[in-house]
Specification:
With 173 residues, the chain is of the alpha+beta class. The protein has 6 helices and 4 strands. It has helices at 6-30, 40-58, 64-87, 91-95, 110-116, 120-129; strands spanning 100-104, 107-108, 138-143, 149-153. A hairpin with a 5-residue loop joins β3 and β4.
């Protein structure tokens, strides 16, 4: 089916413009958190926003107001989840994954790699990407809640206070 009617095309164009503007306003009002690097909940909301937008644009049985109501509901749920994460004790741990120490003091934590399903090659790639050529020159590598890896060179480690909330299975000494 290549063409049904001009009225359907006009409807899609008009609804696309109105819904796009509505989504932009919602994202602007909801703040930077909605567009931050994705954790699992953020990813679900992002996919749901895209799916809702596509449904509103292409399904003529869904009214524009219903679509905008769905978009508002998703943004409000994301806002509430961010609030729980920030202000409720234990809320952050319940909504987001905990960061994991993958390398400490130049030693790879094999147990953490297995638990997080990260290959040692990926760890080495992150170290290389940070400009380090030797694992021994790295104080720590952390798998963050959004799936990225933070590499802390020894020269920048300071007192390592940024790592206090992480646990390691690496045996010292």
């Amino acid at each position: 089916m290549w063409f049904d009617s001009w009225s359907q095309i006009v409807r899609v164009v008009l609804v696309a413009g109105a819904t796009y503007l509505s989504l932009l306003v919602l994202l602007r009002v909801s703040g930077k958190r909605t567009l931050a690097k994705l954790n699992a909940f953020d990813l679900v909301v992002t996919v749901a926003l895209g799916s809702t937008l596509a449904t509103v644009l292409l399904n003529s049985t869904v009214a524009w107001t219903e679509g905008v109501a769905a978009l508002v509901a998703l943004v409000v749920l994301q806002f509430l989840a961010a609030g729980v994460s920030a202000w409720v004790p234990g809320g952050h741990a319940a909504i987001t994954a905990r960061p994991t120490l993958l390398l400490s003091d130049g030693k790879v934590d094999q147990t953490a790699l297995r638990r997080t399903r990260v290959a040692e090659g990926e760890l080495r790639q992150a170290v290389r990407g940070s400009g380090q050529g030797d694992l021994g020159s790295v104080a720590a590598v952390v798998l963050e809640t959004d799936g990225s890896m933070s590499v802390i060179p020894r020269s920048s480690a300071g007192d390592m206070s940024a790592l206090r909330d992480l646990r390691s299975t690496i045996r010292k000494g």
